[in-house]
């Protein structure tokens, strides 16, 4: 059962932004982050490698001509954001950020909202509601390709994550892409799994790890782009001077798929 995102529990979004070096946190957030890093020091590298992958993936997809992105579980703004990377290639790129944490939504809306970059509250456990959201429909053209991003979020979604992605996929036009990272039960030690599950259980987003095969199955209907499903740092690495997050990590697997039908 997911926990409420009403500020009464440590926020996975604030902990993650803090791990990236992009947020000052205090109180219950600080306590959870310090406990997590103390017991599981590589979690900081995992967050940073994840973010580096996300930015490279958006750049690569934008380079194929995709100018629209739907970023699910976007987290707090951390520069560069998805829209910064997309707009470096396509100044008129349109981006919708979705998160189920109201504090993330209000923070994003306060920093950038309008002119083709909008943030809406939505929950991946109800993908139809996201697809029907008036601001999503007003910002994105579903008859043209969309970069669908579900990075470091599906491991917070219990149950049938494949069904969630499939219903989103069915709304997409050919040429759309799916970008995923997901914490993997087969690449983490038992100790790491125990620590991660215990600490995130207290946050707004308890963790649901999946196997490599289950993560691969999220790409049903998509063709995986080379190099396939790999640790985030191994996905199309760039020269160190171009990489803001050079860290390596083993906790998550990452991939990008293209929708060809
Ligand atoms: C670890 S952050 C990832 C941020 C960003 N995607 C990235 O990788 O840089 C996870 C985000 O997912 C959000 N989240 C968790 N469960 C969610 C759900 N069921 N629906 C939508 N967002 C969710 C959290 O509030 C948090 O902002």
Automatic annotation (TrEMBL):
InterPro entries: SAM-dependent_MTases_sf (IPR029063), SAM_dep_MeTrfase_SAV2177_type (IPR006764). It comes from the Bacteria. Pfam families: Methyltransf_19. Keywords: Methyltransferase, Transferase. GO terms for molecular function: methyltransferase activity. SUPFAM superfamilies: S-adenosyl-L-methionine-dependent methyltransferases. CDD domains: AdoMet_MTases. One of its GO terms (biological process) is methylation. This is SAM-dependent methyltransferase.
